Amino acid sequence: MEDLKRTRVITANYRALQGLRLLPWLLWLLLIFSTDTLNAVGPSSTQFFSYQCLFIIPGIAIPWALSRLIANYYTRTFGQVERLPRDRLVESLFGIVLMAGMYVAILVDAQQRLPVSLLGLVVAVYMFVQWWTTGRFLSHTLLFAALFVGLALLPLFGLFADGDWFDPRRQLLLLVFIVVGCVSGVLNHVALVRNLKAAPQVEP
Amino acid sequence: MTEAFEALAGLDKIVHEPARLALLTALSACRSADFVSLQRLTGLTKGNLSTHLSKLEEAGLVEIEKQFIGKKPNTLVRLTTEGRKAIEEHWQALERLHRDAKQWGETGKR
Predict the structure, then answer these.
(1) Interchain proximity A1–B26, CB inside 8 Å
(2) pLDDT tens-digit profile of A121-154?
(3) Is residue A202 part of a domain?
(4) Quick check: B90 pLDDT over 80?
(5) pTM strictly above 0.80
(6) Considering the domain boundaries, does residue A166 fall inside one?
(7) What count of Cα atoms within 13 Å lies in the side-chain half-sphere of residue B3?
(8) Is residue A204 in some structural domain?
(9) Please, which of A81, B9, B17, B25 could form a disulfide with A14 given CB 3.0 to 4.6 Å?
């Protein structure tokens, strides 16, 4: 019965578990953020080449093409599952609320200089809800929710307390967010592969 | 307990067969799924999967749509309204039986 319940959860979250889909976009963001942040916080003698000029507009084609390749790989290897209209609606609404929450959190973090990072807390809540709604078996999602709570509390201990989100020192936190996003995507993919059965090649 | 045995005997055999129960459970969590995804979700061979899907189609529990994506053939499967109702009722019956069996076990211990 547990196995069947898990099959149900995997089917309902088939696309969400295809975590490599977002990886090219996250790595692209990482490249854009990291060079400027490292230039700003690193020693003045060490200057990294800024990839921003290469990657912001013309570079969009690269993550787009890579994500298309990954989507084709998923379709070929795992097939296609169309979500229930109700699930799609809930997920879209949840996505809109998350985006709006992150936007507001960035603005509040920048203007109010709160002792905690609101953005970190918003992402932690998102991770927790994701863990809860995917049958509570993706333990790494819960672990990341705890990590984001920890990151959100860093300013409370004097770390990254000065400056706003547009300050390079605070941008280091954004880098951590993106890295965690990448790792989470890979772990979601691993969870999908581990919970699916190997495709039998020969008839018994 | 006689009621529980009666309920067990009354389970729909078309739905209760393990491979078909797995297929219907997977299909109940989505709008439609293609042949490849059902194979990966259940671990059935192509032949077995085709046979079970045909039986479910004959019973009016699923709809099978064959189409081409580009030049590749693609088989799309979805539950009919009757199929969705059948799997939901079956799960309710199984959970009821599970609950009854647990209660029976606890009474037996005393």
Answers:
(1) no
(2) 998 999 899 888 877 778 888 999 998 898 888 7
(3) no
(4) yes
(5) no
(6) yes
(7) 8
(8) no
(9) A81
Domain presence at residue A62: yes
pLDDT top residue among A150 and A53: A150
Angle (CA) A126-A130-A131 rounded to 5° is 120
If we measure between CA atoms, which residue out of A122, A139, A135, A148 comes closest to residue A188?
A139
- Residue B108 burial (10 A CB sphere; 0-12, 13-18, 19+): exposed
Q: Which sign does the torsion angle of CA A146, A150, A153, A155 carry?
A: negative
Q: Is A78 on the interface with B (CB under 8 A)?
A: yes
Distances (CA, A) of A67 to A22, A60, A61, A70, B86: 7, 11, 10, 5, 39
- Cα–Cα dist A119/A112, whole Å: 13
The CA-to-CA distance between both ends of chain A, in Å, stands at 25
| Residues of B within an 8 Å Cβ radius of A | 21-22, 25-47, 94, 98
Which residues in A lie closer than 8 A to residue B30 (C-beta atoms)? 11-12, 14, 81-84
For chain B, say whether A86 makes contact (Cβ under 8 Å). Answer: no
Question: Are B36 and A196 an interchain contact pair (Cβ–Cβ within 8 Å)?
Answer: no
DSSP state of A117: -
CB contact under 8 A, A85 and B31: yes
As a whole-number percent, the residues of chain A with pLDDT over 70 amount to 76
Q: How many domains does chain A have?
A: 1
d(CA A115, CA A156): 5
Other Cβ atoms within 10 Å of A120 Cβ, number:
23
| pLDDT, tens digit (0-9, with 9 covering 90-100), for B19-57 | 999 999 999 999 999 999 999 999 999 999 999 999 999
Tell me how far CA of residue B65 lies from CA of B16, B50, B57, B62, B68, in angstroms.
24, 13, 11, 10, 10
Q: Give the whole-angstrom CA distance, residue A9 versus residue B41.
A: 11
Distance CA A21, CA A182 (A): 10
Domain that holds residue A32: 2-195
Longest dimension (CA), chain A: 66
